[in-house]
Amino acid sequence: MSPLVSLDYVVLFAYFLGVTFWGAWLGRGQKGGTDYFLGNRELPWGAVMLSVVATETSTLTFLSIPGVAYMGSLAFLQLTLGYLVGRVVVAAVLLPAYYRGELATAYALLEKRFGMGARRFTSGVFMITRLMADSVRLFATAIPLALMTGWPYPLSIAVIAALTLVYTYLGGIRAVVWVDALQMGLYLLGAVAAVVVLELAIPGGWAEVWERAGQAGKLQVFDFRWQPSVPYTFWAGLAGGAFLTMASHGTDQLIVQRLLTCRSLRHAQRALVGSALAVMGQFLVFLLVGLGLWVFYEGRSFSRSDEIFALFIVEELPPGLGGLLLAGVFAAAMSSLSSSINSLASASAYDFWAPLRAARGDEARILRAGKAFTLLWAGLLTAGAVLFIPLSRGTSAVEVALGVASVVYGGLLGAFALGVLSPRATQGGAIGGMAVGIGVVTVLWRWAPQALAWPWFALVGTLVTFVVGWGWSRVTARGGG
What we know:
Elements: H1 6-26, H2 33-38, H3 45-71, H4 78-99, H5 108-113, H6 116-149, H7 153-201, H8 205-215, H9 234-250, H10 253-259, H11 265-296, H12 307-316, H13 321-356, H14 363-388, H15 397-421, H16 427-447, H17 457-480
């Protein structure tokens, strides 16, 4: 076993320093909110595609997905089929609606259809969801730093948040997107390096991994059972994954903001559909790493599945390579965290602050407010990650974060579906439908977790929101217009 040495720290320090200064440099010359939050709508689709992938997967892919395969099989891949279907639908239905107007946030579309109340309600739901889910992501990132340095988790969380905040605050969305693209390449390089090291470390290499994993049933990808309580089945992946990604990539400001930075609708559609194909390959690589770790550690038990790959990086890799993989871990984390901070700040500035302060169209004031909100949300995410520490044992952070997001995603998608598909839907119907839809899924998640697995939450929430909102709108219209 070889702990990290000075060369690893040099690699990490060079990475942190380089990313911070490059991100700050990318933000030079910003004059207003459109520059800061939308990159003046001129970013290339290839960079946006990589940013979308880096944002949605982050540390949860790097650390948690290997743990999912270690504890189970390759069945997680079934979700990616739904991801592809869902993104094609969003590209065909929602993206054209966003590009028909000069919209700054996803929820401005609901204001045009229903009114300011619907915009603020959905934006508020987004903020709460992002705060909860991305606090979990930030905690997961602190695991390898704590293992490497011996620091307590709160200090590790604070250090990562502070480093990310510097370039996010100074660089805005342009820095976030371009640094995301770099960071995705870095953490994929780290995953490939881990595959090579496992080939050398395991007697018999990957041939032995295939044989032993096959004997244990860990190479299974498809499960065609109709069992809603099982999270990774073909049907949950196809239907649940499609609705989950339609909500996350069609209604979540975290992703929609990136798509709005593209030069045209066509470029945004390329970025979105291309991201689905990239995610498929990415998940496969990290799941294979998990199978290799299962053979390497001979099925040893761990208190947290998210610690398995982190422990391998810290204890087993040669000098320099350990630092490279840890840089990959932090690259994944910082890409997601910076995206979250920037999208939360943009929603706060455009959906709440600007209308309340009569500052719509005042680019300079929106820029100043956006930077203030950037500081605020960085602090709240850090606090949320610290609060998650005592709840984390025995859980997989990726499943916790996806579960939290899925609770409300159906409500958001249902509201957008009402706006696009139901001409007679009203603002009261949209808000009421969302409240009921989110409430129903919350009850299922909290009090009946064995009855329905989390990939189905977005589908159930969407259907409940749409049906209740449609009925509410008809009843209120009949009762008094």
